Amino acid sequence: MFRRKFRVITALLIFTFCTGRLFALEEYVSEIYKQIDDCFGSKNEKKLAALLSKNNNDRYYYLIENYTQKKIRRLIVNNDYNFAMEAILVVIENNLDNEEAVEMYSVISEAYEIQRKHEAELERQRQMELARIEMEKEKQRENVEKEYVAAKKTTGGAVYVSGKETKLTSSNWKIALGIADVLHLYDKPGDISSFHYGVSLDYRYEYTLDNKMVIGTDVFGGVQFMGFADEDKLVPLVVDADLDLKTSFPQLSKDLFFKVGFDVLLAGKSKTAIDTGYVVEKLFSPTIGIKMERIPLGQAKIDLGADWLAGHLFVKDINFAGGASMNIEIPFAEMEKVKLNFNIGVRDKFFFKTEGMENRASVILAIGVENVIR
């Protein structure tokens, strides 16, 4: 009975001793594992080398080494070859007989070389793309010099702003040659209704100041030298010329212009044209008017204008004199610096007289040339 109790007590003592040592070992190794985790988390090669070197002669070093290699394999899976290469070298330096570590080094070295070449290729492609983008920017910069206008700052530097949007200190001009200017002259007192053929020239110039104000001028000259009517009702020569100064305020309306100018109207006389005595022979008149320019109409643009001829105040037989105009501009070609357009215009001058009225309406077909605003 006594022997049996002795054996049980001895077995319990041995079990307790072994279990205690096992728990102590587990706690000891666990602490080192945490330190290894910290080394890999911070990717601190020197700290890892010091830890392995410190425990190199430990009887359980193989456990520490195995855990370190496990962490290295995890780096390989995550393609983190830089620290994997550093860590495996630390393992080999602390144990040159570790064949598994040497083999792992060979695998990492090969994979690292492949990754390095891949990254080099990606970098080469990136540099090529940057070079391509730089070339595109250079081309765009050259285009900017054409598409944009330079405005000087008060500091003396230069800033680029869109000419199409702000039109800072930009100019615009247009010349239209009327290859056909057909006039219908109507006079009520003289019962005259005749058609006349001629040519015309129209010039427009505008200058934009700081996108706040536009100033410009309109010049028109037309002459009809060929008539189609009975000889006794034919005015042999009709001249219409005017010069207008105009201004616009883009903040108010970019299309609306206010005009002041001077207008000249002449009608030729003939000894045989006995019925043309009522036709206004000449009128020199200041003018005041408004004009709407370049109103979009699909691809075309339309101009509308109206004028008051103040010169009638100095002619006793004319109670009122006015004018109106319309022009449709249809583009058909554009080059680097100029564009061409076809113009269909109507101009009308009318006089309300003491007896009846006189009207001079003409249809003009013209070819226009204007500068391209970039």
Please provide a written account of the structure.
The protein is α+β, with helices and mostly antiparallel strands and 374 residues long. It is 35% helix and 42% strand. It has five helices and twelve strands. The strands form two sheets. It has a ten-stranded antiparallel beta barrel with strand order 3-4-5-6-7-8-9-10-11-12. It has a two-stranded antiparallel sheet with strand order 1-2. Helix 2 (45-54) runs parallel beside helix 4 (81-94) and helix 3 (61-77) packs antiparallel against helix 4 (81-94). The longest helix is centred in the first third of the chain and has 49 residues, at 99-147. The N and C termini lie far apart (117 Å).
In short:
With 374 residues, the protein is α+β, with helices and mostly antiparallel strands. It contains five helices and twelve strands.
* Biggest β-sheet strands, sense, barrel: 10 strands, antiparallel, barrel
Annotation field: number of helices: 5
Shape: rod-shaped
Helix content: 25-40%
Which structural category fits the helices and strands?
A: alpha+beta
Q: Provide mean pLDDT, rounded.
A: 80
Through-space gap between termini: 117 Å
Please tell me how large the radius of gyration is: 49 Å
Please report the total strand number as a whole number: 12
Give me the side-by-side strand order of the main sheet.
3-4-5-6-7-8-9-10-11-12
Indicate the proportion of strand residues. Answer: 35-45%
Q: Low-confidence parts, pLDDT < 50 over ≥5 residues? A: 11-24, 149-169
Q: Which sequence of SSEs, written as H and E, runs from N to C?
A: HHHHHEEEEEEEEEEEE
